[in-house]
Amino acid sequence: MKLRKIGKAETSDYEQKWWRGATIYEIYVRSFRDSNGDGIGDLGGVLEKIDHIASLGVDAVWLSPFYKSPQKDYGYDIEDFRLVDPSAGTMEDFLRLRDAVHARGMRLLLDFVPCHTSDQHPWFQESRSSRDNPKADWYVWADQRADGCPPNNWLSSFGGTAWTWEPRRSQYYYHPFLTEQPALNLHNEEVLDHIIQEMEYWCSQGVDGFRIDAVQCLSWDRDLRDNPPVGREGSHVMFGGGPTNPFARQHHLFDRNAEGTEEILARFRQFADEQECVLIGELADIDTPLAAPDLTGQGRRLHAVYDFNLINCPSDVEALTEQLRRREELMGASWVYNVLTNHDSTRALSNLTYFAVDTYPKQAAKLLLFMQLTLKGGCILYQGDELGLPHPHLEYEDIVDPWAKAFWPTFEGRDGARTPIPWSADAPQAGFSDGKPWLRVPEEHLSFAVDRQEEDADSVLNFLRRLIAWRRNQPTLRFGDEQISRWERAPIITWRRCHAGSELRAIANFATDQAFLPLDECWRPMRVPGGVTRRQEHGLPLGPLEFAVVTEDNQGGAKPASASDET
């Protein structure tokens, strides 16, 4: 491997790729900070709080969609890819924010949605008008069956059939999500060219890459074959939408990650290499550890992926450990970002550590952040993770999410993760807005407000700052390989990280009980923010939800803790 010199240190080409081992901060713009008092977060509000983000030490910022949109799916239904929606601000706001991000040494990623548009997009308005217009083949159209029913059994993950009748064409159009989100036909080279041109526009405005939404929906089976049902064999796929979503009753062989996906991603990668931007793909609704190597293979497609398997994983230590092992076995050299919460999910504190929310919320939040930042891959933090926010309770009257409304009450939807960030505990609307927020600020979040945590040296916020700074100087954690231990038993999870002759072991007690890990004498705890540094003669004692990193005495570059160090 070729080495290039940077100052006095030698760094491999592998390590020069900034996105390997990076920490990215996701901003759901509508809920971050409202700068104009209309109750909706905007780009100006992000700019106001940019120093908060920079203080975390993250490498990049990812913005949720702020393009012009009817807001049926709150920005993921795009009417114009190049215009800023008035609710989010102006193009000048974006450019000022871009400059501020770059001035603080961070990179800027945009959320990009290539698999569908809004039904209000001019492309679809023309496509639906007739069967012979210039854009007639820009979306996925199909004839009715002989009995008038939709062309196949494909379902929308948001509920009901994935087909909607268009009388002007006397055909059905396909939509993997909402009726208002018709699927683009990316098998059509002209459509693919136009989508790439939309990304190129934002590269010309100085963005550094894209989070590609719903990569599994880029393609579809051109024979329109029915999906087979899930039988007694079950499925490795972890679906959202709650336990009563019929979408989980199919093997999605023909409407998710279908033939042609790899070719579409190869075109995206060619564009990305030319523009020197990064592509990080969101994967859901498929067996992501199995699919990831093909979607990131040999530098020909995505740079990296992130999935929902840790988000949707059953909340017990055995299931979590098995998921980590399966990911290690199947993903190989694929690069993954560790994600425990995002704008579509239950917050991790109330999901993966539900058993500790009432008793050890601060320590549980720290444990989850420790796992994100020490497992193989990069880390994507969702706004509020730095505060250790629990998932709030929302009544049906609070809900605006169409997915939640479709499956209430067995599914609470995405709004709980999208409530406004509490900036100041004593300010109106917790400092989010001077007006009425589009979603209410949960009262239970006030004690987690940023101003309260700034004053507490032991807060989750200040812990995360220290942890990110510590990890930045640990190449073994940022770039190394991973092996999930097969020997430890619940509630302890351990994993080894190896890189350039160095080996570390990360240890987590995933329970509120005391635990003990036997260790050979040669293994010593490192000084890790918030980590256990005391060891006993025969091993490592771990209190509720405590964690540690240990290294062998004979390794260079890793400084073990002394016998007198405390937690």
Description:
By secondary structure, this protein is α/β, with parallel strands linked by helices. It is built from 15 helices and 22 strands. The strands form six sheets. An eight-stranded parallel beta sheet has the order 13-12-11-7-4-3-15-14. Strands 16-17-18-22-20 form a five-stranded antiparallel beta sheet. α8 runs parallel beside α9 and α11 runs parallel beside α14. The longest helix has 16 residues. The protein is globular, with a radius of gyration of 24 Å. The N terminus and C terminus are likely disordered.
First-residue to last-residue Cα separation: 39 Å
| Rg from alpha-carbon coordinates | 24 Å
Strand order of the largest sheet: 13-12-11-7-4-3-15-14
Please tally the β strands and state the result.
Answer: 22
Count of helical regions: 15
Shape: globular
What class would the helix/strand composition place it in? alpha/beta
Largest sheet: 8 strands, parallel
Helix content: 10-25%
